[in-house]
From TrEMBL:
This is BlaI/MecI/CopY family transcriptional regulator. Belongs to the BlaI transcriptional regulatory family. Keywords: DNA-binding, Transcription, Transcription regulation. It comes from Phytohabitans maris. It comes from the Bacteria. InterPro entries: BlaI_family, WH-like_DNA-bd_sf, WH_DNA-bd_sf. It holds the Pfam family Penicillinase_R.
Amino acid sequence: MMRLGELERAVMDVLWDRGTPLTVREVAEALRNRELAYTTVMTVLDRLAGKEMVERERAGRAWSYRPAASREAYIAQLMLDALDLSSSRDAALVRFARSVSGTEAEVLRAALAEEAAGGKGTTSGEEAADGKD
């Protein structure tokens, strides 16, 4: 999975935060403090569609866009991609596990226990790492 640029991330944050399909105009309005041209937002959304980060469908004469996956799924994939950069995934995982807070460690323990039990649910209301919105 590709890392997002700063503007791509801002657009994705709007889509993730709103939770409903949005048109280019609606995304541009949400980003009005950046003073972006409509065509700039349209180009970013088109590129995100090409990267399969967003899905689009016709909404009258315009397109509406929604995230192809949840923010949590995207971040989890970034973490997995980072692990792939290591020559020792085990060592990287141990280092990561030792760096998280006590609360985060509890979340990880609960998720691992659930996975070991064959559960398909999610922990603490979070979405599954490979799930879609």
